[in-house]
């Protein structure tokens, strides 16, 4: 079983933009709504596609499985079978031997920018860049599955940031 250990943060400034080594457009969709034991996602990452299954739990560590799939199949699934989709640009920022993935959401989630960092252990120490704000790891509203079904643009202003 694969385990993903990841922490998620709100991005509060544009300082990361000059540090981004590369960027990749992504489109992803979810094959089931909320309330199940797993999140099942299809993602187009540039010209590559992947099927991803994650335990539907909130927190820094959760089971994760990921498999390559044909891009044409992913496109068809995104167009016909998903209960919710989202688009974003993922920017990769290297800092102190770790990679920060900065997701700049597009479309109905525009205006939201979130940074994630994958770790080797739940208690691994790391430095937070100055553009990293409040931690979102335990807030399900900022998980992609939730955003695909409940777009950021539909949230009341009081719930944003």
Polypeptide structure, described:
The protein has 161 residues and is mostly beta strands. The protein is built from 2 helices and 9 strands. The protein has helices spanning 71-80, 144-149; strands spanning 3-11, 20-30, 38-45, 48-55, 61-69, 84-95, 98-105, 113-118, 132-135. The chain has an 8-stranded antiparallel beta barrel with strand order 1-5-4-3-2-6-7-8. Strand 3 (38-45) and strand 4 form a beta hairpin. The longest helix is centred in the middle third of the chain and has 10 residues, at 71-80.
CATH superfamily: Hypothetical Protein Pfu-838710-001
- CATH class membership: Mainly Beta
End-to-end separation: 34 Å
Q: Choose one word for the global shape.
A: globular
Active site: 30
Protein name: CYTH domain protein
Domain CYTH: 2-149
Organism: Stenotrophobium rhamnosiphilum
Short structural summary:
With 161 residues, the chain is mainly β. Helices cover 10% and strands 47% of the residues.
């Amino acid at each position: 079983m694969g385990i993903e250990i990841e922490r998620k943060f709100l991005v509060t400034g544009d300082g990361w933009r000059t540090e981004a080594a590369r960027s990749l457009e992504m489109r992803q969709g979810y094959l089931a709504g909320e309330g199940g034991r797993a999140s099942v996602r299809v993602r187009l990452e540039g010209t590559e596609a992947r099927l991803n299954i994650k335990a539907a739990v909130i927190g820094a560590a959760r089971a994760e499985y990921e498999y390559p799939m044909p891009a044409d199949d992913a496109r068809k699934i995104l167009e016909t079978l998903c209960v919710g989709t989202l688009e974003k640009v993922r920017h990769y920022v290297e800092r102190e031997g770790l990679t920060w993935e900065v997701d700049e959401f597009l479309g109905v989630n525009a205006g939201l920018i979130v940074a994630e960092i994958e770790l080797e252990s739940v208690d691994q120490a790391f430095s937070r860049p100055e553009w990293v704000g409040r931690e979102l790891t335990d807030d399900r509203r900022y998980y992609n599955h939730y955003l695909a079904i409940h777009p950021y643009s539909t949230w009341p202003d009081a719930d944003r940031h």
